[in-house]
UniProtKB/TrEMBL annotation:
GO cellular component: mitochondrial inner membrane
ETF-QO/FixC ubiquinone-binding domain boundaries: 257-352
Source organism per UniProt: Aphis gossypii (Cotton aphid)
Enzyme class label: oxidoreductase
The name this protein goes by in its record: Electron transfer flavoprotein-ubiquinone oxidoreductase
Record function comment: Accepts electrons from ETF and reduces ubiquinone.
Length: 550
């Protein structure tokens, strides 16, 4: 016997009912951009007035890019004897808290920003001493030599806890007079009547899961600026709005993405080699799935190791789980001994821009600019972007400063546009570096997969990217995913709780906390997509590619 309710189909067996599947989409999204408050009676008598504050420059995001921009602006103001109010809004409760620690950093940008960074106590204390690269089969490791000039050559670089470096940058910024507002995520882009960016508004608080106001509701505040610099990181929600409004991606390729997962381990002292860096490609991924691993040995008071795994999100099998591939990787015979009798103390993940040179958007617009990972400045074969993020912030700061204080130029809009910022980037080592390796990532999109990509990468590195062509990434990542009917389910081994772990115990180590009664952190434009498309066609891949298993 079948019976239905408003949105579910049930089979009745005896006195029990079992839900079979959804036949109508439940209302999931409660965000006001999708379900306007103006038509919601629950908001009828709620005041929407916001406090306003005005600065010269507002920077969205307190990471390496945003803080470098803020520091450079204040350095220029001091040098030119100008008054300049610079504000940074950062979603983390403290600067550096949302930065995934464990990275190898090229100090070139830091050398430019603070030539005396060593004397100032910058937390770069672990120079790379040992560099290894290998190809993994299921049971062995084949070493690949690292020659000078290769992307994996880390001579002169430092292993850092990036959260510590960002915290230090925040301290330097505040010492120069930058106003850093931690715990205030930017939630809305504000515009002048002429369409130029006016600033941002921070998020409202005290909203229930169903989208209604709680008794504790408070409106966010507005921060207005002559120029607003966006440093949100990869795929920022405000940046996506700017892409659309100002058509910033009209003349570039679609962005390609990766997912990076990372753990911090305290290992046995006899397994620890401070300054050692190791990267691998190959197992557990098949030849048609882009990705690889990294292991960095930090020089701390305890023997800490950062281990991570990156998977390109252009994979084809919807049953692939980047998290479980990472856990499986740690059981490789070459890798597992490092972690035996050790203790995992942290876990995290982040999205990566992998489109490189071909996917860089227009970088400025009336009222603002894009910097860092927001703009896609990542060198994929090097797996590095921190120095590009910092340099882009510094260049945007120079252009912003000149635009604000250049009284001879007539401005077309109320919000000022730092127009020469993009040209500064094109004349910098950011552009030349990314152009040189532009064909590495797309070269993996052949039937030869990993092997074809590695062969072509060797060629393009020999000619230093001077081949007279630029390869295309092809279709967007999501279009490479195959329906569930065309692939096989991937069976993953059960975690042992010692080397490999389940996703819930991992999320518990992230330090992420959410109230039970608060809106979902994801906003769906169409509530029918999760069931009608994702579940029906691909068997719900978001439950596998999400690093928190949501």
């Amino acid at each position: 016997m079948m019976t239905t309710t408003s949105n579910m189909l049930f089979r009745k067996v005896g006195t029990s009912c079992f839900r079979l599947y959804s036949v109508a989409s439940p209302k999931i999204t409660t965000h006001y951009t999708v379900r306007p408050r103006e038509t919601d009676q629950r908001w009828k008598d709620i005041s929407m007035e916001r406090y306003e504050d005005v600065a010269d420059v507002v920077i969205v995001g307190g990471g390496p890019a945003g803080l470098s921009a803020a520091i450079k602006l204040k350095q220029l103001a001091t040098e030119k004897n100008k008054e300049l109010r610079v504000c940074v809004v950062e979603k983390a409760s403290e600067v550096g808290n949302h930065i995934l620690s464990g990275a190898v950093v090229d100090p070139i940008a830091l050398n430019e920003l603070f030539p005396d960074w060593k004397d100032l106590g910058a937390p770069l204390t672990t120079p790379v001493k040992d560099d290894k690269f290998g190809y993994l089969t299921k049971s062995s490791r084949i070493p690949i030599p690292i020659l000078p000039g290769m992307p994996m050559d880390n001579h002169g670089n430092y292993i850092v806890r990036l959260g510590h470096l960002v915290k230090w940058l925040g301290e330097q910024a505040e010492s120069l007079g930058v106003e850093v507002y931690s715990g205030y995520p930017a939630a809305e882009v504000l515009y002048h009547d002429d369409g130029s960016v006016k600033g941002v508004a921070t998020g409202d608080v005290g909203i229930a899961k169903d989208g209604s106001p709680k008794d504790s509701f408070e409106r966010g505040m507005e921060l207005h600026a002559k120029i607003t610099i966006f440093a949100e990181g990869c795929h920022g929600h405000l940046t996506k709005q700017l892409f659309k409004k100002f058509k910033l991606r009209e003349n570039c390729a679609p962005q390609s993405y990766g997912l990076g997962l990372k753990e911090i381990w305290e290992v046995k002292p006899e397994h620890h080699s401070p300054g050692k860096v190791e990267h691998t490609v190959g197992w557990p991924l098949d030849k048609n799935t882009y990705g690889g691993s990294f292991i960095y040995h930090l020089n701390e008071s305890t023997p800490l190791v950062a281990v991570g795994f990156v998977v390109g999100l252009d994979y084809s099998n919807p049953y692939l789980s980047p998290f479980r591939e990472f856990q499986r990787f740690k059981h490789h015979p070459h890798v597992q001994p490092l972690f035996e009798d050790g203790k995992r103390i942290a876990y995290g993940a982040r999205a990566l821009n992998e489109g490189g040179f071909q996917s860089i958007p227009k970088l400025s617009f009336p009222g603002g600019a894009l910097i860092g990972c927001t703009a896609g400045f990542l060198n994929v074969p090097k797996i590095k972007g921190t120095h590009y993020a910092m340099k882009s912030g510094m260049l945007a700061a120079e252009s912003t400063f000149d635009t604000i204080f250049n009284t001879s130029e007539t401005n077309e809009t109320t919000g000022l546009e730092p127009k020469d910022y993009e040209e500064k980037v094109k004349n910098s080592w950011i552009w030349s570096d990314l152009k040189q390796v532009r064909n590495v990532r797309p070269s993996f999109h052949t039937k030869l997969g990993l092997f074809g990509g590695m062969a072509y990468s060797g060629f393009t590195l020999v000619v230093k990217g001077k081949e007279p062509w630029t390869l295309s990434h092809g279709v967007p990542d999501n279009e490479r995913l195959k329906p569930k009917t065309e692939v096989s389910v991937i069976e993953y081994p059960k975690p042992d709780g010692k080397i490999s772990f389940d996703i819930l115990s991992s999320v518990a180590l992230t330090g992420t906390n959410h109230e039970g009664d608060q809106p979902a952190h994801l906003t769906l434009l169409d509530d029918s997509v999760p069931v009608n498309t994702n579940l029906n066609l691909y068997d719900g891949p978001e439950g596998r590619f999400c690093p928190a298993g949501i």
